[in-house]
Amino acid sequence: MNTIRILVITLMTLLGAGLAQAADGLIVVKSSHSVAATADKLEAVLAEKGMTVMARIDHAANAESVGASLRPTELVIFGNPKVGTPLMQCSQSVAADLPQKALVWQDADGQVWLGYNDPAYLKARHGIEGCDPVLDKVTKALAAFASAATR
Fold it and tell me: N or C terminus: which one in the chain shows less Cβ crowding within 10 Å?
């Protein structure tokens, strides 16, 4: 796990300020768009790539409905059983983290970010063995989805 973590941090450093590590196991990408536009772009690229968007949750709107305020924050839940099922066959507990989720939020400085679970973190968290080709595919796909939604 430490080798993977060092590799991820090194790659993020090389890629520059557009990519950052937030909470443990979360890959975060800086967006050039508003929260809504980023989430819209993400939904479009997911549909284009054959992914199913299961839900889009507007946490700020939900907060407003109970008289509270929250900066723009949206969660997009998506997946594809062709990819998720093989992961669950390797370690069924990964189902707790599937389908995939992408969180788009605006920070206190007005910057918008898109974050998603690092597949390497899920591998370690769930003790996934024998699924490296699937995890590699997921890693590349998530990075591509995030890049398309944020640039």
Answer: N
